[in-house]
Design brief:
Shape: globular
CATH superfamily of the largest domain: HAD superfamily/HAD-like
Radius of gyration: 16 Å
Number of strands: 6
CATH architecture of the largest domain: 3-Layer(aba) Sandwich
Helix content: 40-55%
Length: 191
Amino acid sequence: MNACSMTSIVFDFDDTLFEMVPNMLPFANKMFQTGIRYEDCYTFNLSLLFGRTDDEIDHMFHQFCMSDDHKKMVPTPGMHKALQYVSSKYNAVHIATARKSKAEIARSMHNALVQHDMMKYMQRVFMGSSKGAVCKRVGAVAFVDDAPHNIEDVATDSPKTTRILVDRPWNQDYKEDVIRITSGYDILNIL
C-alpha cells in the first residue's frame, strides 16, 4: 500500500508522547545554574527561556538525551492507551520530532519507546523534518503536538489534517483552529 493512501496519525515525541520538560528542567537548571520551574515555561524557545545561545541549548539537550534524567521520562498520561487505540483504528502511527537525526539521540528515543512498550505501535520515526511535510507525505488524518508553530506548519502544508494540541504552559495563548487536550485519554473521544 502506498504511504499516501494510508490513514495515518502523527505524534510529536517530546511533551506529547513523553513528559520531557519536567525531566529536562532539573538537568538544564543544574547545567546553566538557573531556577526555572515548569510553570515558568512561557515559551517553547529554550534559548529565550534560559537566556542562552542556540548552540548552548543544543549542547545541553544532547547531554540531557544521554543522561539518566532522560531515562526517567515517563509517557504523558493516557498516551499509551491512545497509541493502542489509534493503532487498532488507523493503518499507521508515526512520530515526527524536531530532534536532530543523530544516532545517540535516536537511540535514546527508541529506548524510551521500548522501555514503556510503545515502540510496537510505531511504523516510522521522522527526525528533524517539517511536521507539515511529514503529515502531507503520510496522508495524516490527525497530528498531535504541543508546539503552536508545528500546528501552524501542519495547517499550511496539510490543511485537511486534524490538529490536536497537548495543553502545556508554553501554548496557553494559542487560540487558532485546534483541538486542545490535557492527556492522551482525550484522544479516545476525539478520533
